[in-house]
Amino acid sequence: MFFVYVLECADTTLYIGSTNDLSKRLKEHNESKRGARYTKARRPVILKYSERYRTQSKALTREAEMKKWSRKKKLALVNNI
C-alpha cells in the first residue's frame, strides 16, 4: 500500500509527499535527518490528510497532481470543503 499525504508545518505551510509507510515517514519528518529538507526547517509537522493507493505509480501521479494545486484548493481538501 502507498500513501499520498499532506502535512501542515509549524509555519502553516503545506507539504505534500508520498510513502509506503506513513507512520515511519511522519516520524522521519519530525525527528530524523531523513526528513525532507523543506520540513526539517519547519518542524513540528502535523499530518492533515492522506489517501491510499495500491501502486506506487498511482500514488506518485496523485502527488504530482496535488502539488500543482493552489493553496486554497489544498486547504479545501484538508478541511473537507
Please describe what this structure looks like.
The protein has one domain: 3-Layer(aba) Sandwich (GIY-YIG endonuclease). The mean pLDDT is 95. It is built from 4 helices and 3 strands, in the order ββααβαα. The protein is an alpha+beta fold and 81 residues long.
N/C terminus separation: 26 Å
By CATH, the superfamily comes out as GIY-YIG endonuclease
Annotation field: number of helices: 4
Rg on CA atoms, Å: 12 Å
CATH topology, anyone?
GIY-YIG endonuclease
Which percent range describes the beta-strand content? 25-35%
Principal-axis shape equals globular
How many structural domains in the coordinates? 1
Q: How many E-type strands?
A: 3
| Highest CATH level, the class | Alpha Beta
Question: Segments where pLDDT lies below 50 for 5+ residues?
Answer: none
Main sheet?
Answer: 3 strands, antiparallel
Oligomer: single chain
Strand order of the largest sheet: 2-1-3
Overall pLDDT, averaged?
A: 95
Give the fraction of residues assigned to helices: 40-55%
Strand and helix order = EEHHEHH
Indicate the structural class: alpha+beta
The CATH architecture comes to 3-Layer(aba) Sandwich
